[in-house]
Amino acid sequence: MRSLRFTGAVAAALLATTTLAAPARAAEPSGYTGVVRTEAGEPIQGACLTLFRTETTVAAEFCTDADGRYTITGVPTDVTYKVRIQATGYRTRWWFDSPNYFNGESLWIPSTSVIEQDLTLGVGAGTIRGRITDELGAAADATVYVAPVDRHGEFRAYTWHLGDGRYEIDNVAPGQYRIFINDNRHGIQWVPQKDNREDATVFTVTDGATVVVDEQWRPLGTVEVTVTDADTGAPVPHPCVYIRSTINDGTACGADGLVRVTDVQPGDWEYTVSGGATYFGVDDGRRLRVGHGETVRLTAQLARGAAITTTIVDAATGQPVPAMCVTLIVPTGFGQGAPGTRTCSDDSGVLAIGPLTSSGKYQLYAKQGRNPFQPPPILYGDQWVTANGGTGDQRQATIVTVTPKRTTAIPPIRVDRPGAIGGVIRDAATGAPVAGVCAYPFAYFGDSRGMERNCSNAQGQYTVNDLGPYDWPIEFTPNSGSGYAWQWAGGAADRFDARLTRVTAGQTAPLDAQLVKGGVLAGTVTNGSSVVDLGYVWSYNARTGDLASASFANIRHDGTFELRGHPSQSVYVRYMSETSGCWYGTAPDWVPRPARARPVTVTAGATTTIAMDMGRTCAPPPRI
What we know:
The chain is mainly beta.
């Protein structure tokens, strides 16, 4: 390709030219200009600045006038360029101060201004070349950095450009340099085999000379950890160790109580030890120090916990299902229970939940995992886990009893293809569509993040996707400012009376909703003769224990509160703050079920008022 060649005088003339097609306004001049000088400060005539779009594609060339001035103008401004500066008898330089195209800075040409930038060309050039090898002497891939001693910055070369561990940098200005190498495995190593800049050798480059600098990576460290059961002293079957290093975190798992982590960078690092689902890991700030070529041996004891193990399989084919996630729910007998531990099956469909701190009873809710950056298609529907499949009704879900320090194996979890439930949500009185109402296939528990996609649009349309082919209850939850009551499918006030909707795989089952005006539960909170102005009030359906209305109400400064959105029902009312808590009409009770609470009847469309006198009934929460 023939380069475009402009002298500074011609460029200046172009800038001064105006169009004859008045009254259109002439374009503002834009680009770069400046003087190219020698290191002694003298201007250089005939120095040429060549703009490259790629390493071999020249876009334009601009040369200096008798005063050493260049001007870059009239080139596209929506791309970047690499700029080479050359003059006879001087060392080639790439914008801004680099020896070659690869190290040159990318230059944007401004579109509305002219930037002044002087440049300097020096005399003389040398070469730095060498070969990088690994700990065993074989050719190694690495980035080689050359750092001038007398100024900031560095330029680099890659060994894979030449192959066989070789690198080379031509057109290096005479001077003194330190060199370091870097890769993702070893980190930074200064030549020769040093940890820091101060200990590195200073290499002198002279005009016309070649400096050969070879380097070999020093061996990395190894960490061996023996992991035993804290109670029995027996080897932990599948221990893992994680080392937090600066460049390359080290993770390895072992067997029969021994883990060996190789390629550990020298330094002082934190580490953690884990033992899978059946052991509590240790993450208490433990540290280790490892040197080059050193093997560090450590020991750790792990406390055994409770665990649940199973496999997840396709109900139709029996094939293992990876990335199916299971959440533990504590079936309190009062309320659905907030979700606890969430664990996903591995590539073989194996699911191991734990370690769990104590004995207890759990129900399992299964849901296919989602990658927010690259969401896969949902192949399997949600389900409450039963002994031989799934269900949409929590009351039919299997209860798994867990014993301390024991692993409970349960039958395989069989999952089915998904379907959906959808319809239109309307005002029961006017028939108008209602937007912003979220639908849930379980009782809302105050934090159902990720379900926003189930909310109705401006036309009142909603869809609950990814449900297994079972009978499901659906709860509709208008926000507190809407004036509508929370309700279950069929207009029911609670989950036990909800109309169940049968889902068919690959189809959307129809379910519309007619919303009625909600009831208000209002009142005051006092503590003897003074108002309580800090905390929250919640209401729970007295039969199911599920939240009965729009989440919670803040207590105002005058001690009053309002909870909106109740259907007609009987509720229990709970006061909570960071320092105390109790149920309305009962002594302090921090267990989920308020055995001695006084029920309150609320009516849709009406206001019910109560006075909560905490008095001696509230107490601090128990220590955990």
